[in-house]
Specification:
- By secondary structure, the chain is of the alpha+beta class.
- Helices cover 30% and strands 23% of the residues.
- The protein contains eleven helices and 13 strands.
- The strands form three sheets. Strands 1-2-7-6-5 form a five-stranded mixed sheet, with helices on one face. A five-stranded mixed sheet has the order 9-10-13-12-11. Strands 4-3-8 form a three-stranded antiparallel sheet.
- Helix 1 packs across helix 2, helix 3 crosses helix 8 and helix 4 crosses helix 5.
- The radius of gyration is 20 Å and the shape is globular.
- The two termini are 32 Å apart.
- The C terminus is likely disordered.
Length: 350
């Protein structure tokens, strides 16, 4: 057990962000006492991160870590994300770099539809791939993907784009918004395409907060699959639904208790309050049924959160063990929550 207050704060930060213990301890020592461990993004940065999570929410490549994210380093006006780019793929042409290019780099078609992040431009260097939106504050740095991998993935995606009648926005407009992108800088709700981009904004606080804590999902159980999607809510926001298919390893009576505690923790968690919790931890281990956690903002922000702890135990894990090397690598990713954090009661359901 970590004995000092600083060590306990560092342990929370390590679990939530995936950074090393040494880096977590160093960072906590540099912070004022009682200050939040994970800063909230400013609005423009939060919207950028909302686009990123939306693009990665349902991976088209094989990943081990949640959405392929190993660790994050959040600041108010920026975010660095370390991705895995070494997971063997069922399709040789695929990679995490391909997934990122496909999901994030903006391209347009003849109908004016823009895929990717409107206004986003990318630069490569020794310190990673830097993403920013032209004329807007905020940035995101992609780590774990080399400049060569990024360039190769971009070239392959260009070929697919051209076959589908699409073009990269940056090729004809590298330093300003392309005419197809500019209408989405301040999207209107009067068009279908405009509403699609506008909806990234009201609940950007939640999408950003989830992206900044993506490694925390690894405390639930062995990561077997992580996907997410959104529904509209009656307050004008979006409900983020995360399904984390996992093999529980915790000996606690409620195996996802540690995750829930940390997600609600005032030092490292989100500004949310539980609205409901469906728990089936007392069901037979071989059951497919999973527990569900529901929450909303505790400050009145629009949107909602649902996390599905979809467990696979006993015979239900056999399909995931067909490749034992891959399965063992996934087991290494699981992060056990210390007993003193697992015991902490969750906040009262409102």
């Amino acid at each position: 057990m970590k004995r000092t207050g600083i060590e306990r704060r560092a342990e929370k930060l390590r679990l939530a962000t995936g950074i090393t213990w040494t880096d977590a301890l160093k960072h906590v020592k540099s912070l004022p006492a009682q200050s939040p461990l994970i800063p909230e993004a400013h609005l423009s940065q939060a919207v950028l991160e909302s686009y990123v999570l939306s693009g990665l929410a349902w991976p088209m490549v094989d990943t081990r870590n949640p959405w392929g994210i190993r660790s994050v380093h959040p600041q108010t006006g920026s975010l660095a994300v370390a991705f895995e780019n070494d997971v063997p793929q069922r399709l040789d042409a695929e990679s995490m770099a391909r997934e990122l290019v496909r999901a994030l780099v903006p391209c347009f078609d003849a109908q004016g539809d823009v895929r990717g992040i409107p206004g986003a431009r990318f630069t490569t260097g020794e310190d990673g791939v830097r993403l920013h939106r032209i004329g807007m504050p905020g940035s995101l740095t992609i780590l774990g993907v080399s400049a060569a991998s990024w360039t190769n993935a971009s070239d392959h995606q260009r070929e697919e784009n051209e076959a589908d009648g699409r073009r990269y926005c940056h090729e004809s407009s590298p330093s300003r918004w392309h005419r197809s992108e500019v209408v989405f800088r301040e999207p209107s709700i009067r068009t279908v395409l405009g509403r699609h981009h506008y909806r990234k904004q009201p609940s950007a606080w939640l999408a950003s907060g989830l992206l900044r804590r993506a490694p925390l999902l690894r405390t639930i159980g062995v990561p077997l699959s992580t996907t997410a999607w959104t529904n509209l809510t009656d307050d004008g926001g979006s409900e983020w639904i995360i399904e984390y298919i996992n093999e529980p390893l915790s000996a606690a009576a409620c195996y996802h208790q540690g995750f829930t505690n940390l997600l609600l923790d005032p030092e490292c968690g989100l500004p949310i309050t539980i609205t409901d919790l469906d728990c089936s931890c007392d069901w037979p281990p071989e059951s497919y049924w999973g527990c569900r956690f529901y929450a909303r903002s505790n400050t009145g922000e629009p949107g909602a959160l649902q996390v599905r702890f979809s467990r696979r135990s006993g015979d239900r894990t056999q399909i995931y063990k067909e490749d034992l090397v891959d399965y063992e690598e996934r087991r290494k990713i699981y992060q056990a929550v210390p007993a003193h954090l697992e015991r902490t009661p969750t906040r009262t359901i409102k």
